[in-house]
Amino acid sequence: MYATNKFLNLTGAPSYCWLLCIFCFMQNRTDNKAIDWRTPFECLIVSITDISMITRFKFWDYVYGKHDKSRGRKEFPSSSNEIACSFVSFSEYVGHPITYKVPTFETNKIIYRYHMRLATIEPNLCIAEESQESY
């Protein structure tokens, strides 16, 4: 419980994300001194796991993903084709191995996307304007 609170404090994630934090993909894929510098997932399946995808995002990074409504250009050009999300984990069972698991800021619903980009590097000004208008 203490570790979860500390993790939420360090990442800035809201308290309702505590369960996502506990079941975080990265915690199961990073080595641990208590188990001879092996990963919990490695101990479970008895094979070495690929962790190369972990370096791209960290828990609760502000990211953009493709918006479902952008398919077929139904919303063009009136709204952005991206949606604001926070990275929480990688999908274990949906899509290919580098499919991201992200809750949207609009609904807090978990969605799965394979194309994500970090919002702090190149912000989407259309989404920033929409969020300012809603205040």
Query: What is the domain total for the residues?
Result: 1
The DSSP helix count reads 5
- Form type: globular
Residue share in β-strands: 15-25%
Roughly how many Å is the radius of gyration?
Answer: 17 Å
Mean pLDDT over the residues: 77
- Give the strand line-up of the largest sheet: 2-1-6
N-end to C-end Cα span: 34 Å
| Proportion in helices | 25-40%
* Poorly predicted runs of 5 or more residues: none
Q: How would a crystallographer describe the biggest sheet? A: 3 strands, antiparallel
Structural class: alpha+beta
Give the SSE order as H and E letters.
HHHHEEEEEEH
> How many E-type strands?
6
Give a written overview of the molecule.
- The chain is of the alpha+beta class and 135 residues long.
- It has one domain.
- It has five helices and six strands.
- The chain has helices at 2-11, 18-22, 25-29, 40-45, 125-133, and strands spanning 62-66, 82-86, 89-90, 100-103, 110-113, 116-118.
- It has a three-stranded antiparallel beta sheet, with no helix packed on it. It has a three-stranded antiparallel beta sheet with strand order 3-4-5, with no helix packed on it.
- A hairpin with a 6-residue loop joins strand 4 and strand 5.
- The mean pLDDT is 77.
Layout of secondary structure:
Blueprint: H1 2-11, H2 18-22, H3 25-29, H4 40-45, E1 62-66, E2 82-86, E3 89-90, E4 100-103, E5 110-113, E6 116-118, H5 125-133
Antiparallel strand pairs: 1-2, 1-6, 3-4, 4-5
